[in-house]
Amino acid sequence: MKKIVILASGGTISGSGLTALDFKDYKTGSYTIEDITRSVPQLADLAEITVEQLFNISSCDITSEHWIFIKQRVEHYLIERGYDGAVITHGTNTLEESAYFLNLTLATDKPVVFVGSQRPLDVLGSDAGINLHRAVRVAVDEQSRGKGVLIVLNDEINAAREGTKTNTYRLQTFQSGQMGLLGYVDIDGTVQYYREPVRKHTIHSRFSQVPLQALPEVAIVYSYLGAKGDVIRYLTESKRYQGIVVAGTGAGKVSSDEELALAEASRQGIFVVRSSRVGNGRVTALNQYQGYGFVTADNLLPQKARILLMLALLETNQKDAIQQFFHEY
Prior knowledge:
Elements: E1 3-10, H1 33-38, E2 48-57, H2 64-80, E3 85-89, H3 95-105, E4 112-115, H4 128-140, E5 150-153, E6 156-159, E7 164-165, E8 174-175, E9 183-185, E10 191-193, E11 218-222, H5 230-238, E12 243-248, H6 256-267, E13 271-276, E14 295-296, H7 302-315, H8 319-328
Parallel strand pairs: 1-2, 1-3, 3-4, 4-5, 11-12, 12-13, 13-14
Antiparallel strand pairs: 5-6, 6-9, 7-8, 9-10
C-alpha cells in the first residue's frame, strides 16, 4: 500500500458552521487534520496515511513565507522520507496560487494534490470528506506522477497552471478555462486522464533548483474604463516593488494614463508584465507598447503571472530572459 502524507493548512475544509445550514459565516480552522481524516475512515482503504498540521488559517492570510514552508515539508516527505505522494488541504480562495507556486518549485515529480472544499466540514451536504477522499485517490494513482501539481475538487482534476476558482459558492468552482480539465475521478472510483500539461513544471522547472528564502515584491494592478495611473505611480514611488503585473482589458491593454505610468515604472527598473482580466486567451506583444520593455504573460491569469515573475526575478534582471520564462512555463 502506498504511503501518502496529508499536509493541512486550514481553509473551509477545516471550517465549522454556526448551524448545519451555515454555508457562509462559518469559522475556518475549527477542525484539525486529525478531525478531518477521522471523518473519512475510507482513506485507510486507499493508502497508508500520515498527517501533519502545518497551520490552520484562512487562505486569505497565506503568504509567500507559507509557500516556502509547504514546499519544504512536501520535499521532506517525498524526497527525504520516500513517501509516494502528498495531499495538501487548503482554502479555495488562494489555493490556485499556492498550487502554481509549488508547480514551479518542487524538486519531485511524485503526485502532489491540492484539495479544499466549498462547504465546511460539519454542514449539511459538505463536500469536504469526498473531496479529500478523491484527492488521495488521485495521489495514489500511478498516472498522476509527472503531471505537475494537481487540483482536485468535485471529482475533477485540474492542472495547477490553468486551474482557477470560478464561482464563489458552487461546488463545481475549479475550472481550467478553454484548456479544459486533465481528467476525473469517475463514478466507479477510477482516475481517468484525458490530457496532460506541456509547460515546464516541478523537476523540469529551473526554479525547483533555486534556493528560496524570500521572494521579491510584485503587485497586481487591475485596469478598467477610465483608470488613472495613480496606483502605478504610488507603487513606483514606494521603491518597494520589483515588479508590477497589470490585469489589462481585452488583450492586456491599459488606459493612456496607465500606459504613461507603466512606462515610467519600467524606466525606473520595475519589471512590468501585461496580462488580461478576460480569463482566456494569450497576451502578446503589441506595436503600441514597443520600446517600453514590457513582458507579456501569455495566457497566465494575473495572479499566476505574478508568481512566475516573482520567481523569475530571483534568476535574472534581463527582460528577454524573463519573457522566455513566460513562453516556457
